[in-house]
Amino acid sequence: MNRIVTWISTNDRYAFQIINHKLKSKWLDLILPKLTHLGGATCTISSLLFIILISESIFRAVAIKALISLALSHFFVHIIKKIYSRERPYVKLPDIQLGVQPLKDYSFPSGHTTAIFSIAVIIALHSIILAIILLPIAMLVGFSRMYLGLHYPTDCIIGALLGTISSFIVYFTTIF
């Protein structure tokens, strides 16, 4: 078991270094600091509330399900961050290219990635057309978190998994 944890940790750092250093480009430096906010609390909550307020029937129901999925996923994110207390890459590793302001909370799991997946997946379960648009955006948000030096790959992978699981739970247990 210890060998597996060591392997994951080593490869997690290695993948992070590739994303944070080797994939740098002016285009990504311009786009990703803006795109990353699509997974933030302000954008996710306000977008869903806006859809709930202005839309009718099916769109409103899907937005309510997405809001429930978001809340459920972040309940688990909060607990896991407290239990695991993983320091962010820019605290632990040298020469991190930090693309945004440093954060004060823990790294594992990625809240932005969890949030965007908890919304994108539940919407994708209702519409294949929106799935084609939203799932790549969700993946880009996860990528942006690593590119900007804020999260390790495993933070984002587990965040995507948590968001996906919460979406499936809400999708298969809600009656509307």
UniProtKB/TrEMBL annotation:
The highest taxon in the source lineage is Bacteria
Q: Where are the bilayer-spanning segments?
A: 35-55, 62-80, 115-144, 156-175
Cite the entry's keywords alphabetically: Cell membrane, Hydrolase, Membrane, Transmembrane, Transmembrane helix
Per the UniProt entry, the signal peptide is none
Pfam families, per the entry: PAP2 (PF01569)
Q: Does the keyword Transmembrane helix apply?
A: yes
Q: Which residues form the Phosphatidic acid phosphatase type 2/haloperoxidase domain?
A: 63-171
Grouped into one coarse class, the protein's main location is: membrane
CDD domains on file: PAP2_like (cd01610)
Kindly give the membrane topology term recorded for this protein: Multi-pass membrane protein
Q: Does the keyword NAD apply?
A: no
Q: Where in the cell is it found?
A: Cell membrane
Q: Which PANTHER family match?
A: DECAPRENYLPHOSPHORYL-5-PHOSPHORIBOSE PHOSPHATASE RV3807C-RELATED, SPHINGOSINE-1-PHOSPHATE PHOSPHOHYDROLASE
Q: What is the name attached to this protein's record?
A: Phosphatase PAP2 family protein
What does UniProt list as this organism's lineage? Bacteria, Bacillati, Bacillota, Bacilli, Bacillales
